[in-house]
Amino acid sequence: MKAARIHSFGPPDVVVVEDVPMPSPGPNEVLVRVMAAGVAPWDAIIREGKSKVSPQPPLTLGSDLSGVIEKVGPGVTGFAPTDEVYGVTNPQFCGAQAEFAAAMSRMVARKPQSLNHVEAASAPVIAVTAWQMLFQYAEAMRGQTVLVVGAAGNVGAYAVQMAVDAGIQVVAIAHLDDEDLLRSLGVKSIIDSSKPAFEQDLPQVDAILDTVGGSTFQRCVAALKPGGKLVTSVSTQPLPAEAIFFYAEVTTARLQTLTSLFDAGRITARVGSILPLSEARQAQRMLAGAPHKSGKIVLQIGHP
Ligand SMILES: NC(=O)c1ccc[n+]([C@@H]2O[C@H](COP(=O)([O-])OP(=O)(O)OC[C@H]3O[C@@H](n4cnc5c(N)ncnc54)[C@H](OP(=O)(O)O)[C@@H]3O)[C@@H](O)[C@H]2O)c1
User: Are residues 130 and 210 in the same domain?
Assistant: First the structure.
C-alpha cells in the first residue's frame, strides 16, 4: 500500500509517498481503509522533530482519518468490518496518511451521516480540541463571554461555532480578511489583531481560548476577568502561570458528541484544499506557507 512517510526530520521535502506493508490491527485496534486523511500543523511539528509525543522516523504522517473498517483486532467491541468511521489513529498522532491505517478503537466513532469522508477527516482533532478548550478546560457556560484568539483558524472556527451554538458570547481576535467568515459563523465582535494597541479595545471576558500564541496571546491576557480561564492549544511558547495547555484527547465519546452536532446542523466542517495522497509533500508545503484555500487541508485517498 502507499503511505506518506518521512525517513528523517526536516522540511516538507523529506516527505515521500512510498510502498509499505499494510498494517495489521493489534489488540483494541481497527484497520481502516482510509478514504481521506487530514493534514495539520502538528504534522509539521512531527516532521520537524519537535513533537514530544511522536516516534522517531521512519514514520507515516497523519492522525485524522475517515474511512471504512476492513478488519478488527483482538478485543474490539462495537465496531465491525464495513462500518464507516472517523477519528484519530493513536496518541502519537501518526499513521493516517496511507491507504490503510491501524487506529485505536477508543479513538474512532461512526462517521456523521451528514458529512462525506473528506469533511469527516477534516474534523476530529481540531473539533475535539475546540470542544475541550471551551467546555472541559474553560468550563464556559451560556451567558458568559469568551475571547477566541485566531478565531478564523481551524480550531478557532469550531470554538466559535460551538460557543455561538451554546449561547456563549464570542469576541474574535482575527485578521480583518476573515471578517466575512466570522460574521457568517455568528460572531458580532471582531477585533483586528494587526491594529496597533488592539488590546485596548478588549472587553473583560470569562475565558480566553488561544490558538495563536506568542505576543498576540500575551497582549490579550489582561482582558481576563479575575478567576477566568486561560486556555491555549499552542505548546511552543512560554506560558503565563495560570495558562492551561493540553494535548487533544480524541475519544469515541467526544466524537459521538461532535457527530450529534454535525448531524443536527449545529456545526459545519470547513474544508480547504483537497489533494491526492501522491501530493502529500505539497500538502506539507502548504502548511509551511505555500498558497492554499482557507480551511482544513485534506488528502483524498480512497473512493467508496
Ligand atoms: N494542543 C493540541 O492538542 C492541539 C490540537 C490542535 C491544534 N493545535 C495547535 O493549535 C494551533 C492552531 O491550530 P489550527 O489547526 O487551528 O491552525 P490554523 O488553522 O492555522 O489557525 C490559526 C489561525 O490563527 C490565525 N492567526 C495567526 N496569527 C494571528 C494573529 N497574530 N492574529 C490573529 N489571528 C492570527 C491564522 O490566520 P492566518 O492563516 O491568516 O495566518 C489562522 O486563522 C496550532 O499551533 C496547532 O499546532 C494544538
Answer: yes
Q: How many domains does the chain have?
A: 2
Distance 216 CA to ligand 1 centre (A): 12
Ligand 1 within 6 A of CB of 216: yes
For atom 31 of ligand 1, the residue with the nearest CA is 216
Q: Would you say the CB of residue 131 lies under 6 angstroms from ligand 1?
A: no
Q: Kindly state whether residues 151 and 214 are assigned to the same domain.
A: yes
CA 150 – ligand 1 centroid, Å: 6
How many CA atoms does the CB half-sphere of 53 hold within 13 Å?
A: 13
**Residue 32's domain is classified under what CATH number?**
3.90.180.10
In this structure, the answer to whether residues 109 and 138 fall within a common structural domain is no
| pTM of the complete model beyond 0.85 | yes
Residues 110 and 145 in one domain: no
3-state secondary structure of 49: coil
Residues 9 and 87 in one domain: yes
Q: Report the separation in Å between the CA atom of 211 and the middle of ligand 1, taken as the mean of its atom positions.
A: 5
* Helix or strand run (H / E) with residue 165: helix 154-165
Ligand 1 centroid to 107 CA: how many Å?
23
HEC secondary structure over 188-230: CEEEECCCCCHHHHCCCEEEEEECCCHHHHHHHHHHEEEEEEE
User: Which residue range is the domain that position 30 belongs to?
Assistant: 2-123+269-300
**Choice from 171, 175, 202, 215 to test ligand 1 binding pocket (greatest atom count within 8 A of CB):** 175
The model's pLDDT over 111-140, given as tens digits with 9 standing for 90+, comes to 999 999 999 999 999 999 999 999 999 999
At 18-62, the pLDDT tens digits run 999 999 999 999 999 999 999 999 999 999 999 888 899 999 999
10 Å Cβ neighbour count for 116? Answer: 16
Q: Specify whether 117 is located in the same domain as 199.
A: no
The enclosing domain of 166 has a CATH number of 3.40.50.720
Biggest CA pair distance of the chain:
58
